[in-house]
C-alpha cells in the first residue's frame, strides 16, 4: 500500500454520521423516538411505527457530539433519521416521503378516516 493509499484510508475512517432527531413533517426536535411518534400522532394526525432505542449505528446530532468529533478530526455528515426504521436521509423531504410511503399506519384528516397499508 502506498503512502497516498494510507492517507485516503485514514481520511475515510475519519467520517462520522450524526442523525438529526427532528419530526419529518415540521422542525420540532425530540429526544426519543417515542416522543417523536407521540408528536406526529397528536400534531400531524398520523400514526407511525416506532423504532426502539439502541437500534441505530449512528451518533445523535447535538452540540456535544459535533464538538467531540471536530476535535478528533472527523468529517461530520448530518442526516435525518427515520423514527420507524434504520433508514437515514440527506434531505428532510426524503424522510417525509419515506415515512408517508412506508410507515404511516393510519391518518386522521379533519373529515373522515383513512388507513394506509404497506
Automatic annotation (TrEMBL):
Domain C2H2-type: 23-44, 82-103
InterPro entries found in the cross-reference section: Znf_C2H2_type
Name assigned to this protein: C2H2-type domain-containing protein
Taxonomic source organism: Phycomyces blakesleeanus
Amino acid at each position: 500500500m502506498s503512502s497516498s493509499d494510507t492517507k485516503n484510508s485514514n481520511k475515510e475512517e475519519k467520517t462520522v454520521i450524526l442523525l438529526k432527531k427532528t419530526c419529518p413533517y415540521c422542525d420540532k426536535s425530540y429526544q426519543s423516538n417515542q416522543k417523536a411518534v407521540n408528536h406526529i400522532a397528536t400534531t400531524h394526525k398520523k400514526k407511525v411505527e416506532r423504532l426502539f432505542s439502541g437500534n441505530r449505528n449512528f451518533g445523535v446530532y447535538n452540540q456535544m457530539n459535533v464538538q467531540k468529533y471536530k476535535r478528533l478530526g472527523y468529517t461530520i455528515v448530518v442526516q435525518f433519521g427515520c423514527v420507524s426504521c434504520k433508514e437515514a436521509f440527506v434531505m428532510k423531504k426524503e424522510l417525509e416521503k419515506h415515512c408517508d410511503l412506508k410507515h404511516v399506519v393510519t391518518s386522521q384528516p379533519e373529515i373522515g378516516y383513512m388507513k394506509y397499508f404497506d
